[in-house]
Amino acid sequence: MLKYLLRKEFRQIKRNAFLPRLIFAFPLMVLLVFPWAASYEIKNLNISIVDNDQSSFSKALTQKIISSNYFRLTDYSVSYSAALKSIEAQKSDIILQIPANFEKNIINAQGAKVMLSANAVNGMKGGIAMTYLVSIINEFNASLIKDLMPLSKSTTNISTIQIDQQYRFNQNLNYRVFMVPALMVMILSLLCGFLPAVSIVFEKELGTIEQMNVSPVPKVLFILAKLIPFWVIGLIVINIGFVVAWAVYGLVPAGHFYTIYFFTIIYILTVSGLGLIISNFAQSLQQAMFIIFFFMLVFIMLSGLYTPIDSMPEWAKWVAAFNPLKYFMEVMRAVYLKGSDILQLWKQLLALIAFSIFFNIIAVISYRKSS
Amino acid sequence: MVKCIDLHKSYGQTIALQGVSFEVNAGEIFGIIGPDGAGKTTLFRILTTLILANQGSATVNGFDVVKDYREIRKCVGYMPGRFSLYQDLTVEENLEFFATVFNTTVEENYELIKDIYQQIEPFKKRRAGKLSGGMKQKLALSCALIHKPTVLFLDEPTTGVDPVSRKEFWGMLKKLKAQGITILVSTPYMDEASLCDRIALIQKGKFLSIDTPLNIVNQYKNQLWAVRSMNMSKLLNDLRSNKSFENCFAFGDSHHVSIENKKLEIKTLEEYLLKCGHTDIEITEIQPTIEDCFMEISKDTTL
After folding, report:
1. Which residue from B minimizes the CA distance to A3?
2. What's the number of domains chain A is made of?
């Protein structure tokens, strides 16, 4: 019986003009476009420099800033107010003002001052521009000290603490490495959680579900026949994800593939349970789509996909604790970047198992009630 | 074959069925006749185990609709009012699919549907959604019959179908009946009532009367006149304002007026209408139809 039901489902998916394309286009689109667009790495900041010194030091500093690749020199302004104009015109993001006698003061060991003003309308961007610029100036400062006072290092204690930075798991601080595994979770949630729900509600809307209900087909088989094709699709899609991550981003899981497969299967069960609950309550496609939209939005915003959950307010952390996406994203990132194994991810495993049991039980109960 | 005792069903505040009891004998065509919203579909959905009644009991083929719903699902065929086959599967695939769903094959029961299916066979590679209305209906009937049900439920099968196809469809039902299948059919068309073996008139969730079409017509106790004049809408108002008539309603191109037997002469009515200023008055005595009976009976219950 299940065989025939499955054959029907696959036939319908194949016949659907839109679905097969969506199944392949959606993950490709998400994995190829999103990691580039949704990135907090800020490059090409526009800088206005007001150089009142016009000395070799001020030139060297300017040169250093431009060659850092983070900044693009928009203009040399004659005065601070002129530079401010260019910020107002949104031509530049940050102003560096070098005072007169900059070089002279340094050589005389009196110490020199520069002023940085960043446009903080976009707080994130302003902050990052400031940080970058400060670190470049610090480097410049350090090299000056080294050049001008080669002996000072041994005689004075200018720099007792040497900072040696090391970024673990993602050495180049590549944002895409962080995004790609999590995006795979988002794709799986949509394909395995919500497409079967849409498919069931569609049968409701067409009335075909009644035809099935008056037949001897057990409800369980009918639902299984709805879920299995999407489970298969989910597993295909995760493999597409592996290939794209490797081919485009050079990303290979540090851990084992079987850890990911194992969690994927549990996760698919979880989200398809959630989808079934939605399909029990929605009477029309419109309703179903809207409920899905609502859940997806909340789940994605509170999943740690873009912004870390640790920096959210306490209540949001609580909401996120009930978000299955969050756990699977943690798993994907941990396996991809840190090479964690199943045992190390026991917390996430328990959470996902609990979710899948909970959602599926609710699905069964709500199905009984709605019939 | 089908037996209902005091069925009640309501959806929240809306009462769909209030105390329906009837019995359908094996091998008859039982018509449930009533206007939209009378409770026909609700009754069918209870009998086909899709929904539960609030009160009362029903059996189909001797199986209880609540306890033995699994058995019922094996032996009934249901054709809902709305076309509800898989539109993206072809004619052939739909038929095959429903055959396998009922654990049978198309070949096994082909004899039963042969007459109907042959008419749509030239289009068997066409997707069901692309069929014309009449063909959809034939396909739906074929699918409902493919597992050789003993009881067939047809919910408004002829609604939205052209008169020729309707006639054809009733011809098919007669043939199915000859094969021993019990058929319950609901329809809002009174003219189809006479094609049933027995009919039940239903209104507002209540059965008004259950009998053969002939008996129902014979029980009509009043005299019935068809009245026409130049101004039909004024005529209806004038007829209704005259209290000596039992009932009066528009019926096609004339108004039907029922009068308690021998109470009134045609001449008296004519005089009354002339006084009201009507011209070209035409009054003829006519034989009642099922619709007249329905109007008569439903008037009694609403008062």
Report:
1. B100
2. 2
